[in-house]
Amino acid sequence: MRFGHVLSTALLLLGVAAAPAVADSSPSPSPSGDDSAPTRAGTSFRTATEIEQGSQATASGSAGDYLYWSFPADAGQRPTVKATVKLPEASTRGAAETWQVDVYDGLRRRQACQYGAQTRTAAQDAARVELSCTLRTVRAWSETWADDPLPGTYYIRLTATGLPASELGLPVGAEVKVDSKDIGGAAAVDGSLGKPLVPGIATSAKESDPASGSSKTALSSIEPDDGWTSGWWSDRWVWTAIGGILAALAGIGGYALTRGTGRPSRVPPGV
Question: Could you give the percent of the chain with pLDDT greater than 70?
Fold first, then answer.
C-alpha cells in the first residue's frame, strides 16, 4: 500500500512537470490580415525593411533589383522563409527567369538552407515563382570559428540572376513571410551570447549625451515577442525531472521487493 501511494504521488508530479512542455510545444497562431505589414523592401542590408515573424510583407520592384527584408530569430527557433514573385507579363519576357532567395545572419554571413527551393527557374509563360528556405536551428551559443545560426537579426535578399539586358527594369511584385518552429530542449546548448547579433545593439539611449543633444539608438527596433534569450525554460528541464522521478521510483521499488516481510515467526526473539 505504501509503495502504491508513493507511485501515485510520483505520477501526479510527473504530470505537473510535463504540463509546461505540452504548453510550450503547441504552435502559436500567426497573425493574419495585419494592416501594418510592410509594403516595401529595402535595397541594401542597412535599408532592409523590418518584418515580424508570422506577418506577410509585400513590395513592388524591378527585375534586377535586390530586395531586402530583416526579421528577428531567437535561440531554439528554426525559421522558414517563403517568397513569392509575381513576374511581368509573358509577352514582355523573352526567356525563362531564375530567382533566388538568400538569408544572412546578424554578421552578414550567408546561411545555408537546410531544405527548401532556394533557387527556381520560371518558364517564359509563368505568372509567378515560389521560393523557400528553411534554416538550421538557431543556437544560443557557438564557437567563434563556426558558421552556426545565432540569435539576432536575419536578412532576406531576393533577386533575379542572369537576366538579359532587355528584361532589366520590368515591374515585379514580391511577397515574403517568415515562420519559425520551436525546436525546444533538443537544440539547447551550454552557453549563451552576451548580446544578440542585432545592428546597433552596442549603442543605446544610455549612451546619449545630453550636453551635445545627441542620442545614440539601436538601428533595429524588432525583437521576439517575449524578448531575447527568453527561452531559458525548455523541455530539457522536464526530462531531467522525469529522469529523477523514475530513478527514485526504481529505488523505492527495489527496496520494496528486497526488504522481505521481517523476522520469520519460527525464529525466537533475541536470536
Answer: 71
Please state the rounded mean pLDDT for residues 84-89.
Answer: 93
Ranked by mean pLDDT, the top range of 36-40, 114-118, 183-187 is 114-118
Listing DSSP states for the chain in one string gives -HHHHHHHHHHHHHHHHHHHHHHHHSPPPPP-S-TTS----BSSSTTPEE--TTPEEEEEEETT--EEEEEEE-TTEEEEEEEEEEPPPGGG--S-EEEEEEEE-TT-PEEPEEES--EEEE-TT-SEEEEEEEEPPPPS---TT-----SEEEEEEEEEES--GGGTT-EEEEEEEEEEEE-GGGG--S---SS-B-TTTT--GGG-BTTTTB----S-----TT-TT-TT--HHHHHHHHHHHHHHHHHHHHHHHHS-SSS-TTSPTT-
173, HSE (Cβ side, Cα atoms, 13 Å): 8
Strand duo 67-73 + 49-50: pairing? parallel
- Per-residue confidence at 79, pLDDT binned at 50, 70, 90? very high
Residues of the chain with pLDDT > 90, as a percent, come to 42
Phi/psi of residue 249, nearest 5 degrees: -65, -40
pTM of the model: 0.72
